[in-house]
Design a protein that fits this description.
By secondary structure, the chain is of the alpha/beta class. The protein contains 7 helices and 5 strands, in the order H-E-E-H-H-E-H-E-H-H-E-H. Helices cover 43% and strands 17% of the residues.
Length: 156
């Protein structure tokens, strides 16, 4: 899907994820956020990375989102839903979203954007490649509000 084919509610959900990434950075965590939306597009939950503040290497925004939303809303709320991620999800997060029943993943900044902004270790398996192997399939779309998310990665 081209960036112009995204719906306005997709833009709104991604802006919440990007704002959560800024909040994560301001709190001393890595600059990533994620938003969960129902299949109809209703925002259900937003979470941010908390790796540093919780001393949990699995505290990626998407993992936190799956855990918190499942606990607060029940696991059925995740089935068929969309996750909007400020950065392209890693393999760990892609797996968690698949097992949670997420049907669609939309990300802003690419793995290349993340590497350029933050450096450090990379698990560079593209989210779309990993989830293309899933059964049932998970739709993956990238580039929504990419420039805004890349700026947030740089603290701008």
């Amino acid at each position: 899907m081209s960036p112009t084919a995204f719906r306005e509610q997709d833009h709104a959900a991604m802006r919440l994820a990007i704002e959560a990434s800024r909040q994560a950075l301001a709190s001393g965590d890595n600059p990533f956020g994620a938003t969960l939306a129902s299949p109809e597009g209703q925002v259900l939950h937003t979470a941010r990375n908390n790796q540093n503040t919780t001393r949990d290497c699995t505290g990626h925004a998407e993992m936190v989102l799956v855990r918190e939303a499942s606990a607060a809303l029940g696991p059925e709320a995740l089935r068929g839903a969309t996750v909007f991620a400020s950065g392209e999800p890693c393999a760990m997060c892609a797996g968690a979203m698949f097992w949670a029943g997420i049907a669609r993943v939309v990300y802003a900044a690419s793995q290349q954007d993340i590497a350029q902004a933050l450096g450090g270790p990379q698990l560079a398996t593209p989210c779309a490649d990993l989830l293309a192997q899933a059964c049932p399939p998970v739709a993956v779309q990238g580039g929504l509000l990419r420039a805004e998310a890349a700026a947030a990665l740089r603290g701008a």
